[in-house]
# Entry
Amino acid sequence: MKNINILIVGVGGQGTLLTSRVLGSLASKLGYDAKVSEVHGMAQRGGSVVTHVRFGDRIFSPLIEEGRADILLSFEKMEALRWIHYLKEDGMLIVNDQAIDPMPVITGNAKYPDDILNRLINRISNVFIINAQEIAKEIGNIRVSNSVLMGVLAQHMNIKKEDWEEVLSSIVPPKTIKENLKAFKIGYNTKLGCEEGARLNDVLE
Amino acid sequence: MIELMLGNQAVARGAYEAGVAVATAYPGTPSTEITEYIAKYDEIYTEWSPNEKIALEVAIGASLAGGRAIVSMKHVGLNVAADPLFTVSYTGVNGGLVIVVADDPGMHSSQNEQDSRFYARSAHIPMLEPSDSQEAKDYIKCAFELSEKYDTPVIVRLTTRVAHSQSLVETAEPQPITLKEYVKNPNKYVMMPGMAKARHIVVEQRMKRLTKDSYDLDINKIEKGNSSIGIITSGVVYHYAKEVLPEASYLKLGMIHPLPKDLILEFASKVDKLYVLEELEPVIEEQIKSWGIQVSGKELFSVQGEYTANMIERAIKGSTVNMKQKEELPNRPPVLCPGCPHRAVFYNLKKLKLTAMGDIGCYTLGALPPLEGIDACVCMGASIGMAHGFEKAKGKDSSKKVVGVIGDSTFIHSGIGGLIDIVYNKGVSTILILDNSITAMTGHQDNPSTGRTIKGEITAALDLVALVKATGINNVRVIDPFNLKESEAALKEEIERDQPSVIIFKRPCALLDKSQSSPLKIDSEKCTSCGLCLKLGCPAIQKKEEGMVIDESLCNGCKLCTQVCRFNAMEGVDY
Ligand SMILES: Cc1ncc(C[n+]2csc(CCOP(=O)(O)OP(=O)(O)O)c2C)c(N)n1
# Structure
């Protein structure tokens, strides 16, 4: 199998580490070599955070280089744009349609760009946009929005849905398994954005 | 069993498999999780020590008693522990002693980018450097064997990318925890000049023997490839290089001090062009050059920041990776969390236009706009001495404008000595201890004031008020920082005083406070968009086109904003 590079980005505190834990467990459960590189410490306090997930037959570097990510999964709109140059030409972007103002915007020293989605779409063709926290709110637990995003991601990877669900259930807090599975399912079944050429299955055979 | 493990977790596993009896640490990114994982093994006595010096001293005592001991810290922690470090090199060990130090190239969570390898060289202590989690585990075990075989402490150096990356680890059965016999031996363990002179000779012999033996050490590996390019490297950089130069020849060093000179000479003679790839300082490169060997290194790279695979490809292959354009965007610096008790203190400091000598912890974030409540930050504990020095240079009256700001964990780590200095030398500074009852920045570790050990056991809680009073400070009071008015009045009063004073601002970290209420909302009828609430720098309060809004996914209902708002515009207000 070709190595798969997934970059997960967002704002510290949004729960990106949960997603990388699920992906890491999945990859090792399926017998791949895997490396996951995380950000702990300062940036977790509301800063821009990034997690690198790589798996395949043999992985050397724990980091994905600029221009070499197959998938960019972004928990926040502007962070998607901040990290977009990590994506390959034909890579895929899954972006949560949420805006969190960074402090320079709150203090009025900078402006949150209002054309982010357009700029993203102009740069790459495979863009999937979903409002995960709306869905999470409907489910009744705003924290399960990352499972919605994982559901979307799962649509585009050649890994059985049951495997995702099993690993997800083993990692989220026991009390929230039902809500997380529901969120995952909604993400998995939501058809969005550009359909054509979107599947990465051929990369993941 | 094969498991995906964080590098730090693998270090802990290695300690467990090596039969470690005692593990100590003071937290610090990126080393913190090592000790948190070790604490999960019931068999291993584990502690958070008040600071790194004490952590190392406890480990030295355990080693002397005959048990294997491990102590972990971040790079700057080794500065604090440097005093015992240099001399335990002379005494050597009884049970194996391993010091894990995590460097932070790129400064993801640190105040400087120092290179710990210099410590290994100047203290004459062998140093190993793993490149992934499997090696992290294996090298810890190897380090204990070397420690006992050569009668020396051994340093295992990690960098952020090894400490905080997960990769696959094959676990093994632990060896039992055993104690060697302790035999009184003043010539070896009492380091006064007469004995130390003799031990220094032993140290030199030991390092010579290690240099010679390192030729056969299996963690120093030659991987034969194409002979046109030879790469000497260690740690995670090895993996970056393999990613882009799989065909080259490698000498991968597992032991980076002392260097295996003969092995390096042999390797150098077999390749056409030799490179050293090492982040931070040219430690390996300069040693190799001093042996008269031509090698390329830092002229192609920087001493700043991290290396990347792309960078190595560009420097060595000369190929330009097709770089895509970055977008120009507003920065997203880390911020004090919604509900953070520190915010309230900085709001008042700014209002009173005070100069603040700061310290290290979450509260250092109070230096950023809009709070801008800290003027300086150097190292843990420095705020108190710096406030005192500021006063001594500018005169007593200046202390009416200057305060020292320090967290609870940092105060215990190395702040208390500064306070003793102020009293002893007749200073009049006002010191603010921001007591959120936890070591927050590094991910919520207990400390002597929390009343719990690392294993979650109940223990005596250090009484900060009594401690402060015992230094001779008569004016100490405890205030809830969320009472903005009372805090402001207390600040004014204490800075005016012609005596030293301490205000303990006590309120639990918002991330641990279980008494949180539901998010607030802005009543757009009442809100005039005056922007006063924005001065709090709360990430949950944002100014949109339609006016002020509170992001309910961020707000934790701390209600601090209701004290600032003049129009009662936050709903759910009943303060
Ligand atoms: C010598 C040294 N050891 C460890 C650290 C890592 N470190 C940075 S902040 C911090 C904790 C600060 O805790 P506290 O003073 O209670 O402040 P809080 O983060 O809780 O606000 C630690 C351990 C460091 N910077 N320097």
In short: Residues 193-213 of chain B form the longest helix (21 residues). Chain B has four domains: 2-216, 221-317, 342-506, 520-572.
